[in-house]
Amino acid sequence: MIVRFKSPRPRAREESENYYESINTNTRQRLGRLSDEAEVELSIIVPAYNEEERLPVLLNDVLAYVEQRRKKEEFTYELLIVDDGSHDKTAKVALAFAQKHNIQELKFVRHIINRGKGGAVTQGVLSALGRYVMFCDADGATRFSDIDALLAGMDCARPVVAIGSRNNQALGDTVVERSHVRAFLQWAFHTYVTILGVRGVRDTQCGFKVFTRHAARMIFPYMHVERFIFDIEVLLLARYQRIEVIEVPVNWHEVAGSKMSIVRDSIQMALDLLAVRLNYMLGNWKVDKKA
């Protein structure tokens, strides 16, 4: 019954969702495809739903990182803001920021109907043109410059996934600030995830993950989950295909304004996770290992 009623059924893209807006032109441009050859060094995917207040913090963090990196080397990137059906001024804020700072690399994508965080991330990754593809939360909770620590252990010639971790502070001089309630729920969820067979990863839910293009191509075309539990399916697909996963400590602080309901969404995530695990165990969902 859980498999039947809780299994996600992603919708197809609307035609308008194949295009993006930017400050470079008055007309929308067609998005790239993950199956294409890479055109830039790094694709940054940011899922955004009613983020007019929190998004500028992240954008300033990304801008500072890009400016510092370009002082050291030639660096190309694209920044995909995937607006997942927002009702506020997220679009206006993002495009105004790009205009003010002349960020020609910012691409703004609008979803007609809300998919969920996982769906927004997946659609963004499927349109990425970077040698490395990463996604991060719109709230700027993770210090963006920590991406260098993740990239340091990656080889773009191989399928590799690097994930930020809020549980590995013993491995480095990182700082994590979270409430006791959030800390307890994260421990409980990690225990549940381990029981269901996702082992070896201390923090599955940190919204700061980087993929080589090869790894992204092996994972995201097969994604089903579009809500908060999507990170687990990403890691399951990596595990099934023997993709290397490295966990790196990052600096993180809790930011007000989360769209999650601690009680309701925790229950929903538990049911969704069970459905995901059962679908793969029963063979309802399969991976083309030749891809």
What key attributes describe this structure?
alpha/beta, seven-stranded mixed β-sheet, two-stranded antiparallel sheet, 35% helix
Describe the structure.
The protein is an alpha/beta fold. 35% of the residues lie in helices and 18% in strands. It has nine helices and eleven strands. Helix 6 packs parallel to helix 9. The longest helix has 20 residues, at 262-281.
Walk me through the topology.
Layout: H1 2-6, E1 19-20, E2 29-30, E3 40-48, H2 55-72, E4 77-83, H3 90-101, E5 106-110, H4 117-125, E6 130-136, H5 147-151, E7 160-165, E8 176-177, H6 180-195, E9 208-212, H7 213-219, H8 230-240, E10 244-249, E11 252-253, H9 262-281
Parallel strand pairs: 3-4, 3-6, 4-5, 7-10, 8-11
Antiparallel strand pairs: 1-2, 6-9, 7-9
Compute the number of strand runs. Answer: 11
Strand order of the largest sheet: 5-4-3-6-9-7-10
The Rg value, from CA coordinates, equals 18 Å
Report how far the terminal alpha carbons are from each other: 31 Å
Helix content: 25-40%
- Tell me about the biggest sheet? 7 strands, mixed
Shape: globular
- Figure out the total of helices: 9
Low-confidence parts? none
Structural class based on helices, strands and sheet pairing: alpha/beta
Spell out the helices and strands N to C. Answer: HEEEHEHEHEHEEHEHHEEH
For this structure, the quaternary state is: single chain
Overall residue-averaged pLDDT value: 87
What's the quick description here?
The protein is α/β, with parallel strands linked by helices and 291 residues long. Helices cover 35% and strands 18% of the residues.
